[in-house]
Design a protein that fits this description.
By secondary structure, the chain is α/β, with parallel strands linked by helices. The chain has two domains: 101 residues, Rossmann fold (3-Layer(aba) Sandwich); 89 residues, Formyl transferase, N-terminal domain (Rossmann fold, 3-Layer(aba) Sandwich). Helix content is 36%, strand content 21%. It has a seven-stranded mixed sheet, covered by helices on one side. Helix 4 links the parallel strand 4 and strand 5. The longest helix is centred in the C-terminal third of the chain and has 26 residues. It is globular and about 50 Å long.
């Protein structure tokens, strides 16, 4: 049986990362300024040398690296992540540029409490391999006239969980994938914060 979100003064967040960490810093700053009624209590990665972990170090956030996929089974990594999140009494898990699929044991323990930010208007341009610049290059190559960002619940399949919120932008003629990525990232930052605020209010 899944445990309900515990009512407390500030929601306890875990942020899962694999990349440079702009979402992590955005979330942490929002918490520190109290514009978001939460606290980042744990940063977890599958890439110990990624930029996000340096940000976590610089900001004094607790960090943890999952076992290497080369030396551990998917089930053991899943068990380790679930235990880590439970040990830190996490309320919400945010995957922000995290490039590994979350296992079924963790998802069951945190049912409807794991959310992801994705740089497209899902269900378009989601799925395995669709992350970062790959998404924006595909959008430009397809001649799309708009793109944007989506926040969705995480389930067993990449980018296929129920969409919670989206925000769109127009694609200007001649826009490059790099320029689109920069514009979408700003939308992602704002959308993730507004969506999380809404989810926290619902659970108060």
């Amino acid at each position: 049986m899944n445990s309900p979100v515990v009512q407390r003064a500030k929601a306890r967040l875990a942020v899962l990362v694999s990349g440079r960490g702009s979402h992590l810093l955005n979330l942490h700053r929002a918490c520190e300024s109290e514009s978001l009624n939460a606290k980042v209590v744990l940063v977890v990665t599958n890439q110990p040398n990624c930029g996000a972990m340096q940000i976590a170090l610089d900001q004094g956030l607790e960090r943890s690296a999952l076992p290497s996929a080369k030396r551990s089974s998917e089930e053991s990594i899943d068990l380790a992540l679930r235990a880590l999140l439970q040990r830190h009494d996490i309320d919400w898990v945010i995957t922000a540029g995290y490039l590994k699929k979350i296992g079924p044991l963790t998802l069951a323990a945190f049912d409807n409490r794991v959310i992801n930010i994705h740089p497209s208007l899902l269900p378009k341009y989601g799925g395995q391999g669709m992350y970062g610049r790959h998404v924006h290059e595909a959008v430009i190559a397809a001649g799309e006239r708009e793109s944007g960002a989506s926040v969705h619940y995480v389930n067993a399949c990449f980018d296929s969980g129920a969409v919670i919120a989206q925000s769109s932008i127009a694609i200007n003629e001649g826009m490059t994938a790099e320029a689109l990525a920069e514009r979408v990232l700003k939308v992602e930052h704002a959308l993730l914060l507004s969506t999380l605020k809404g989810l926290l209010n619902v659970n108060e």
